[in-house]
Specification:
This protein is of the alpha/beta class. It is built from twelve helices and 26 strands.
Length: 465
């Protein structure tokens, strides 16, 4: 067995599209007809159609936001909202996955990652989950790791009681759009006191030209349980806009621990407008570890609602904006319970005219006495054309709270660069080493194999310096 858990990743590998036949590919644009066809294709219960139609109504009455990066070139009527590859399905054996799809995930190294270190693996291609597995010992403990389209039937009451409760369709226009057209995604349920040490992974791949992916991830961690879920994303390059507007809802029980790691490496065609939110009960903790690269525009602000007393949230994020790219990322933490704590650490890089923006919210409610929050934002600008901004929003409604915010922005230290080059290291390689050192505190939060892969992706972004 190879010790490398992923394939031979390169920009050519990630940007390459596949010649896929779709058994179900709906017309472009969003309408009630399209929503009903998605519902029928997934054979969903009636209550889900109600959710979809109510979400569609909210979407049609909503307006595009104007406070974040420009979305004027995103034409929502020129997106395919559903595409089911021919022969796909929720396969339990890798051998059953259609060859054309399997070759893509083989190139990306998903089977090797599963054999090397994962407790479970799950893969989605466009709108359809094509494969998932879970170790038998976890199944025996009552762990559920399923395609959402399956879980709404096999675990209907549990799914229905949580579905779009943390992120209601009324939250914003893309939450409403998601509620109307979602397809695929993960349902992960960890029973009380079950501890999972090895990561569970999901991999999302968009292939359809001008396509959209709207997976729904629902994670329920019962009291005293713990888990680590890792999400990887990629898409080919076509030269036309594509859209990713997934949704992640996490419910963390009393004294439970959840770590959610995500590396989103879309193509430059992609608008990444994802919504992620966790509700944390008494003594529970949520950790978000995120890397955002590649997409044309990213707006992503994972949110932690610290509902219970003594609950905690940690947000660690890396964003890399290259030429023509704008990454508007950050974190939101809402303190409600007593003695809650949060920490936000953000690292951003800008190159070739790219723009990296940290946008964050710390909201400490009147009830959150004893709250402590710390925010640390560092930006590294790699040339004179790029920019980095920090836009914090801090709201404190109690006198019994401690909040610290620190932000810095700078460029590569010329003395450090000179020292490395004087030791025979080429300038590009020296700059890459400095960048990797800059983000290394956050890469340490990923498992070793994933941190190594993230290093590869950062090296690819540094090419041409």
């Amino acid at each position: 067995m190879t010790t490398q858990p992923f394939g031979d990743i390169s920009r050519e590998t990630l940007d390459r599209s596949d010649d896929i036949t779709y058994s179900t590919a709906l017309e472009m644009g969003i309408s009630e007809k399209v929503v009903r066809q998605i519902w029928l294709s997934n054979k969903e219960p009636d209550w889900m159609l109600d959710v979809r139609l109510k979400s569609l109504d909210i979407f049609q009455k909503s307006k595009m936001p104007t406070w974040w990066p420009s979305l004027e070139k995103l034409d929502l009527n020129s997106i395919y909202y559903f595409g089911k590859p021919e022969g796909s399905g929720d396969n339990k054996s890798w051998d059953d996955v259609p060859d054309a799809i399997k070759s893509t995930f083989d190139r990306l190294g998903i089977p090797e990652a599963e054999r090397a270190m994962l407790a479970g693996v799950w893969a989605q291609y466009d709108s359809e989950v094509v494969y998932h597995s879970l170790r038998q010992e976890l199944q025996d403990q009552g762990v559920i790791f399923e395609d959402m389209s399956v879980a709404i039937h096999s675990h209907s009451d549990l799914v229905r009681s949580h579905f779009m409760r943390a992120v209601p369709p009324s939250d914003h226009i893309f939450a409403a759009l998601h509620g109307a057209v979602w397809s695929g995604g993960t349902f992960l349920y960890i029973p009380a006191w079950v501890q999972i040490d090895a990561p569970l992974q999901a991999y999302f791949r968009m292939n359809m030209k001008s396509g959209g992916q709207f997976e729904h991830t629902l994670i329920v961690i019962e009291d005293g349980a713990s888990a680590h879920y890792i999400e990887w994303c990629s898409a080919p390059k076509y030269g036309t806009a594509s859209l990713h507007a997934g949704c992640v809802e996490i419910y963390v029980g009393n004294n439970a621990r959840m770590r959610y790691s995500s590396v989103e490496n879309w193509s430059v065609d992609t608008y990444n407008l994802n919504t992620k939110r966790a509700i944390v009960e008494k003594g529970g903790s949520i950790e978000w570890v995120g890397g955002n690269l590649g997409s044309w525009v990213t707006m992503l602000y994972p949110c932690s609602i610290l509902k219970g007393d003594d609950s905690r949230a940690m947000h660690f994020g890396i964003a890399f904006a290259n030429e023509w790219q704008e990454t508007d990322t950050g974190a939101k933490v809402i303190h409600i319970g007593k003695n809650t704590s949060s920490e936000v650490v953000s690292k951003s890089l800008s190159k070739n005219g790219g723009a990296s923006i940290y946008r964050g919210l710390i909201d400490i409610k009147k009830s959150a006495t004893g709250a402590v929050s710390k925010i640390d934002c560092d930006g590294l600008i790699l040339d004179s054309r790029s920019r980095s901004d920090t836009i914090p929003d801090i709201r404190v409604q109690t006198d019994d709270a401690i909040v610290a915010h620190e932000a810095s922005v700078g460029k590569i230290n010329e003395d450090t660069l000179f020292y490395l080059m004087s030791r025979g290291i080429l300038e590009t390689e020296a700059k890459t080493m400095i960048v990797r050192g800059f983000v290394s505190p956050l890469l340490k939060e990923l498992p070793l194999e994933y941190a190594a892969e993230m290093n590869v992706l950062i090296g690819m972004e540094m090419e041409g310096m």
